[in-house]
């Protein structure tokens, strides 16, 4: 399993909280994704996966370098069929 450093700011944490996503939820999905892709709207990196409480979310982020991630947003999405 890869290891990444995350750059957390108060603004990002607050933004995720508005969508019901915690720092722990975000990191869990990025570190153990079910799938990865690019965001259709921004072309940023996107990881899909389950939070510890079973919600399926998308986590959008940017790589600052090969080991550092800047979280952008995350929110619940429909599970894949």
What does the secondary structure layout of this molecule look like, with pairings?
Blueprint: E1 5-6, H1 10-18, H2 23-31, E2 35-38, E3 45-50, E4 56-65, E5 68-76
Parallel strand pairs: 1-5
Antiparallel strand pairs: 2-3, 3-4, 4-5
Summarize the structure.
With 81 residues, the chain is of the alpha+beta class. It is 22% helix and 38% strand. A hairpin with a 6-residue loop joins strand 2 and strand 3.
SSE string: EHHEEEE
Low-confidence stretches: none
Number of distinct beta strands: 5
Mean pLDDT: 94
Strands of the largest sheet, in order across it? Answer: 1-5-4-3-2
Fraction in beta strands:
35-45%
Assign a percent range to the helix content. 10-25%
The radius of gyration computed from the alpha-carbon positions, rounded to a whole number of angstroms, is: 12 Å
Overall geometric form: globular
Instruction: Name the structural class.
Output: alpha+beta
Largest sheet: 5 strands, mixed
How many domains, in number, for the residues?
Answer: 1
- Total helical segments: 2
- Distance between the terminal alpha carbons, to the nearest Å? 25 Å
Overview of the structural elements:
The protein has 81 residues and is of the alpha+beta class. It contains two helices and five strands; from the N terminus they run E-H-H-E-E-E-E. A five-stranded mixed β-sheet has the order 1-5-4-3-2. The chain is globular and about 35 Å long. The model has no long low-confidence stretch (mean pLDDT 94).
